[in-house]
Design brief:
single chain, about 240 residues, alpha+beta, 6-stranded antiparallel β-sheet, two-stranded antiparallel ribbon, 9 helices, about 45% helix
Amino acid sequence: MPIIQSVERALKIMDLFDERERELTITEISKRMNLHKSTIHSLLKTLQEQRYISQNEENGKYRLGMKLFERGNMVLSHFDLRNVARKYLEKLSATTNLTVHLVILDGQEGVYIDKVEGSGVTVLYSRIGRRVPIHTSAVGKALISTKTNSELDQFLENYEYTKLTANSIGSKEELLEEIQKVRLSGYSMDNEENEPGIVCFAVPIKDYSGKVIAGVSMSMPASKASEENRKKERRNAKRVQ
């Protein structure tokens, strides 16, 4: 089936906005899309009328609209897993004072579908709906830890091992070696691989058939991650299973 160009362009415009670029001028959008301003203006006007894009009246810049918030909440409300897991996430966070995440696999990335902020640490990177790399995150490793070697080969085809910190895994060989450790221990770890100063532990969540359907992770400051604390959090992480 052919791709409808105008729809593709509209979606790509919305993808331009993130935590760093919350608002953009029409000139900035035009340059990044490599399209004439008149074309961008027509697309923005359509998105604006449908409330997927709004315009800041004070500076004239464009930003994501409330319709996306509404639709996003509808999607989240359909996650039975999220509803069932919520009380356990809250209990785990209250017990450990750590930030706890619930993550599912989507394509070659993880997606945060719930988060309980702990009193002991604030994790800036994570937010509900945001994507997280598989190779740099504890929960990403947990999500793929039960795949067979042949399944991993297929899953990791054309995967990009972007190094987010000095500790990030940088190759398939390194990741496969790490996955083997996860299989043996039953939990995974992110040692400041995704966000400097943050250490995470994670475990996969399985359904009745043994299939991994999600992962739960706990985050703590690296400065507080003494060996004694790490042993304690590993025990807490394994209890989730």
